[in-house]
User: Fold this.
Amino acid sequence: MRGTRYELLERRKTWSMDRVFYFDRNGTQRSFPTNLTDVLPPDAFIEASAGRAPFRLADLLELRERLDRHAGKKAGASHV
Assistant:
């Protein structure tokens, strides 16, 4: 289906899911989840990162833990 073009009938939420509706070759109304189409503008983060990430998840989680511990020590200090 990649590269196939459909005439958009409408876009609406059905069953809590954003969907686009179109007619297939037989005239039957069909739909796709909107995120599987190019109806939405590209996600800015995905475009900028181009599939790359400068940090590993494990390293980021460790950094978060260290920052939380550091913030906890500051909160307990009685002097400035």
